[in-house]
Each structure stands twice: as structure tokens, then as C-alpha cells.
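User: Hand in any protein.

Assistant:
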Amino acid sequence: MRSGALGSPSVLIRRVTPADLATVVDLAIRANEQFRDAMGATVFRAYLSSLTDVERRAESTTVLVAELGERVIGTITLYADANAEGMPVVYPDRTAGIRALAVEPEVRGRGIASELVAGAIERARRVGATAIALHTSPFMVVATRLYESHGFQRTPKYDCLANDILCPGSGKAVAALGYLLELD
């Protein structure tokens, strides 16, 4: 799917290929470096380990990339079943999940992340999802605004600690705030 991101030439949202994997891993590391201090060393290390396991995720989920020209500049992962993400919460049947949104720092502010989220929502509808769930943290302010602009609503019953998933019993406590988008 090609579309024109605000302030940028046409961006292609497509599935990741094996040739993209190293680029997506590098992109995820650089895009999330800003959260190192807020998470603390233990949780951040575990978070990066999870985010950079793109090859494994691509085997069982839909990993999308945003491509500008010949360059991969963003990524997001869509789980057809949010319960397959491994979160310590249980979602209703037919709830998809998104995670691992990342955009190259130098191209932020051009609508790329919004296009990735829209692409994931479109694909969730195609697989018959009736809702999409996600988690974010209080310090991920820009991401929270983005998700809310797409209609995601804060859903505290799905809150948990990132530590419970990433590094049980260790590290600084990092809240994982639940959000849900009901699809028409």
C-alpha cells in the first residue's frame, strides 16, 4: 500500500522480508534509545531483546515496514490474536494486538508512524478482528497521542507491569498501560 505521509513523498507499507531484518533490528534499537533512562538498565535490556527478535515475530505475526524509496524507515507488528503476544492479560476473542512501533528518529514528524498504525488497523480488519489492543508506558507521550488520535481508548483493566513480561521480579517497575480500539 502506497500513501503520502504528511510532508513526505510516497511511503510504502508492506510486510517485512528476510532482507529487511537487520535494518529493522537496527532501527528498533535507535528509535527506542530515548527510553533507556525511563526504563532502567534491566528492563531496557529485556525490552530491546524482545523488540529486536524480529525474525521470530515474523514467523508467526505480521511485521510491517514503512519504506521510503528503497529505505526501510519504520516498523510495526500486528498479532492477529492479541493473546498470542504473551501479555499477562486476557483479551476477548477476535482482539488483534499491535506492538513494536518504531520510526527512524531523523524522519519523525512526517506521519510515518500514523501510516504504520493505519496499515495495522486495516490488516486487523481484514483478518476479522473486532478490536485491537496495545500497551504503552506513561513516558511514551508521543506514542500515546498517536494511538489516541487513531481512536484507541485507555483501558486500565489491561494494565500490567512490563517487568512481568520482560524480566519477572527484577528491574525498575515500568507500567504497561492498556489501550483498546473497538473496530466497526
